[in-house]
Amino acid sequence: MKLSQVKALLPTLENVTFKLENGSFVPEHFHVTEVGMITKNFIDCGGVIRTEKTVNFQLWNADDFEHRLKPTKLLNIIKLSEEKLGIEDAEIEVEYQSETIGKYGLAFDGTNFILQNKTTACLAQDACGIPSEKVKKNLSELSVNQNGSCTPGGGCC
Q: pLDDT digit string (tens) for 48-81?
């Protein structure tokens, strides 16, 4: 989800809620402690130089159980970060603490923002030596030797 999509949704919401893919919710007394732009410059395993830009939201829980972040407050934080930091309209990545700091993609289900699990992947699969997945065929689709038997050098076995 891009920043512009979040900005369009916030004025339509009464509350800001974040839900993990496993169905659990970020406690409703969370804070958004950071909104920023992260630029990652790197070289993939194929030697290609790459740049990725993401908008970062960091969620944090404190012991102030009465705290509730309202949509207008989050919208104001976003607008201030755009104004002061020049944040672009990029995909959002959310940092949230569980056993360690997790990084999540962001989606919306009509009511809640969904923290989507992220995975790693090779960006240069053609260059890193990982064989491509073999095509699976049903035995019934394979051609059959007409006389029903194998002969040396016949290529059937």
A: 999 999 999 999 998 889 999 999 999 999 999 9
Query: 90-107 pLDDT, tens per residue?
Result: 999 999 998 889 999 999
Instruction: Establish if 89 belongs to a structural domain.
Output: yes
Best CA proximity match to 1, nearest among 86, 111, 112, 105: 105
Amino acid letter, 108: F
Tokens of 77: 């934080």
Domain with 48 in it: 3-117
pTM above 0.85, yes or no: no
Alpha carbon separation from 140 to 45, 137, 154 (Å, rounded): 40, 8, 20
pLDDT per position as a tens digit, 135-149: 777 766 666 555 656
Nearest-angstrom CA–CA distance, 87 and 79: 9
Q: Is residue 153 part of a domain?
A: no
In-domain check, residue 151: no
Residue 21 sits at the vertex; the CA angle it makes with 55 and 73, to the nearest 5 degrees, is: 45
Q: Count the domains in the chain.
A: 1
- The reply to whether 10 falls in a domain is yes
